[in-house]
Amino acid sequence: MKKELLLDLLQAIKKDDYKAFSKLVTDRILCTSFGRFPMLSLCYMYKSAMILEKFENSLKKIKTADYSIEEEPFEIYTDFREIARKSLRLFLTSEFVFPEEMLALMARSQKLSKEWLDFDRSYVAIEHIKKIYAINFGEDIEISSDKISLPIVKNVNKTKDYLLKFIVFCMCFVLLSGCCIGLVTALIGLGTTSSPIKVDNINSLVINADKVVALQDDIKVENQTLSNVNTINGNGRTIYLSSLSFIDTLDGVLENLTIVVKGDYETTDINTALIKNNNGTIKNVNIKIDLKITEKDTENDLYISALVGTNNGTIQNCSLSGNANIIGNAMGNAYYSSIASINNGEIIDVSILDGAITSSDVDLAGIVIQNKGKVINAQNKSTISQIGTDIISQDENMGWNPNCSGIAIENTGTIQNCINYGDITANSLSNKALEILISGIATKNSGSILSSNNHGKLTTSSPNSSVYAGGIVSLNRQYLDQALSTFVFGTIENSRNFGDIDISNTQNEATEIFSGGITGVNQGKIIKSANSGKQTVITKNGSPFIGGIAGINTSYTEGMYTSYASITECRSDSNISLTFGKKQSFVGGLVGNNNSTLQYSFTFAEFTITDANDYADGENKILAFVGSVVGVDNISRTLTGWSSATAYNSAYCANAEQATIGAFVYQNSIVSISDGLNKGYNDKQAMINTLNQEGRYWE
Length: 699
What we know:
Number of strands: 66
Shape: elongated
Radius of gyration: 35 Å
Oligomer: single chain
Helix content: 10-25%
Largest sheet: 45 strands, parallel
């Protein structure tokens, strides 16, 4: 709109020149807002009675979304300043000065009360009107979107408030210097990165959530959720929450803040978290929790996280401490993690400092449920306990397959330089044959796990469940990229397990147990990784596959394509203890059952094998295939390119029999000096010397 027309309109309003105004306006021009001031607000401010008599009803029908915003003439601000007085600070960063706010500033209580329902009555306007009556007139009022009760007050044009005089003086000084409202806005802030709005209460935070704000005091939040947040600088302050959801979407920065959340909650929200969606940056935030969360009335997959639901941005230098007890309903899959449910972005330098995460029928992870991005330099020190449920005894078609891990449930991205210190327990009380997955770093991996370690003890027990246990990963997988017709390998590299693994399978149901110092099942690649943790497995009727590195190292077939896993340059120093029952067992210093590449690896593993069966006279004994390198090697020697699948592996054999009374040892699986592809030693130092000469020994 031409500047001359705007100035003519403004002069017509100020002079209440009805004829001049009528000649200028059209329906479109009636929607004009002079900067922050809609036309109706100006008519109220300048008491344009004749114009209002003809146009007030039409102007009231115009909603905020219809405003056409033009440049704000400075003379409007100077006139408005005299009316607003001490309430001026409420409007320095406001998008609009609404007509109902203008009536409140002018102390037109009767008109405002009578015509209240004719206005937009936005949340911002309601909060401003409360403050206007408190600041300008010393009155506390009751007001809501559909009801208002106002006292009759005097409109005092002058004030003895020394602060206001100081502000006016500062404004004049700054105006003389060529600035608009410099020192005034400096006291409160402009809502920009260089001049954040100063906030000291939840109402102010709600009003200014789309701007850059800085906390000036601790804040208590009672069930308020901020829909879209720009930037909050906590300035070292604390926000106390009484509900789990605090921010729906963060687009900017949340930093330098402590968040405390405690209480018992029920949730049906499939994405439950303090911050549901992070598209920005969360840094230097400390979370303190004491939570009991109960899943209610949903059959959908439920994702619960103490901090973020879906992370598309960056979470950096954050920590969490405290306890979480998650109660599922066993109707759908449910998951809990401390930092993020789904990570598509970056999680860097985060720590779970202490506490306990417990549940009966919810999958648990220390850091993230599904990692599709990057998790770097994360550590978990909390204990993680999936204590088991017998819910399926009530309905045999239902059951819960426990998944517990120190860092992630499923990794398709990158986990690097991460450490789990917390002990992890995953139990099932069900008599049904379910599956338990337990690991130090990730239960399922088809991405990359690099330079990550586990120090926590892994413990699992069940009557009949199959078990997949790994110091680093439960299942290290690969898949076929259909578009490229190539296999993508889950990779574990330069990682180490120090934690013990204890597995108890107590009843007589036929199950499988896959336990490895690095992974229970390997279909991917394991490179230069090591295990120092002890493995103890007790089963009555399960079929155990136990290895210092992997329980089974196996190929993967999809359609007409077959791809082989590989274990390269790995070492294991662990002891393996097995008490077996009525099924064949496969135990190896490196791999229990191997049909893929295993090369340039060595082991100092020792075995304690116990046959728990009572045999009748003449009854055949159950086979225990025990080998210093592999229990059984099923690789086809005639397969082109795989003739050296177990090439140049070395093992320390303290006891060539490797068996206790009652256990049958498959002798061909014992590594011997005569094996051309492997080397066996009875002298540990001799083995180390040879490995050093070959350049393959490493600590």
